[in-house]
Amino acid sequence: MKGPLFFAKILLFGEYGIIEDSKGLSIPYNFYRGALKIPSSSSEEKMKSYQTLIHFAKFLKDIPDEIVIFDWKKFDKDLALKMCFDSSIPQGYGVGSSGALVAAIYDKYALNKITVLENLTREKLKKLKLIFSEMESYFHGKSSGLDPLNSYLSLPILINSSDNIETIGIPSQNPNGKGAVFLLDSGSESETGHMISLFMENMKKENFNLMMRDKFIKYSDFCVNDFLKGDIKSLFNNIKVLSDIVLNNFKPMIPNSFRDLWKKGIDSNLYYLKLCGSGGGGYILGFTQDYKKTKIALKKYNIELVYNF
Questions:
Q1: Mean pLDDT of all residues in 238-264
Q2: What's the confidence (pLDDT) of residue 245?
Q3: Distances from the Cα of 301 to the Cαs of 254, 283, 284, in angstroms?
Q4: How confident is the model at residue 1 (pLDDT cuts 50, 70, 90)?
Q5: Considering the domain 6-167, what is its CATH architecture?
């Protein structure tokens, strides 16, 4: 058995904000992918994945039937054959490793599933997001359901609010463009559950709550609108402000060794960094209008190109 492939995702804008009903824009990232399979040989990695699936299946059995029902006969039969999720998506890096696994399980075992081939109305997308939110909460304690949705549909997704999501076209890449969105490897994994708990605690503080509402969400929404319109000048003005807001208010989510680099980007206007997912490690997302110069400036680090302007 070799299941269909499910890709990584990148949340370009909306990290943390979407928990508080901001806009968000998520795109598939097919450089990394995963698929369910019955392994022909055993390895430590495959056994680890198999054990994860055993515990995950136990959790899924407790999800109410009115949300989602699985074909347990088929699921248990495949688990008995030591099924694993064969994936190149790095875990704890903010690019949707658990989301791809959730999408793969739903695709293979959900009964009466909503398929990507049907007319995906707003109600169906909302239902899928709810299902995926329940399923992925196993991994993070709280999930928006967006990562699995992106992986399942393999389409860019615009979040207008928690109740209003839609698939959307994004401006075509310019392969010869100087500007780029890139990933910067922090060299360490992130603990998403811990980061989200930290954020939820901070939201109880009045100053942080005001900053989220009056600054973070405002500029994050501006960035979504600019990106979709292809207004690069306005986009970079707003990303600079957003990058600065994150640097000053989300310190625990930025690894210590990257804070100076973060500030250097803002001060030089060569590149702007922002969180990729929950932060605290994993990838950091970067935006630049001169990718060649940025690659030279960041030559000590591993960076990956995501999108060309």
A1: 96
A2: 97
A3: 16, 11, 11
A4: very low
A5: 2-Layer Sandwich (3.30)
What are the angstrom distances between the C-alpha of 154 and each of 220, 285, 308?
23, 20, 19
pLDDT in tens, 174-227: 888 999 999 999 988 888 888 888 999 999 999 999 999 999 999 999 999 999
CATH 3.30.70.890 residue window(s) in the chain:
180-308
The boundaries of every CATH 3.30.230 domain in the chain are 6-167
pTM of the shown model: 0.89
Amino acid, single-letter form, for residue 218? K
The span from the CA of 151 to the CA of 96, in Å, is 8
Residue 272 near residue 265, CB atoms below 8 Å:
yes
pLDDT band per the 50, 70, 90 thresholds, residue 308: very high
Q: Enter the CATH code of domain 180-308.
A: 3.30.70.890
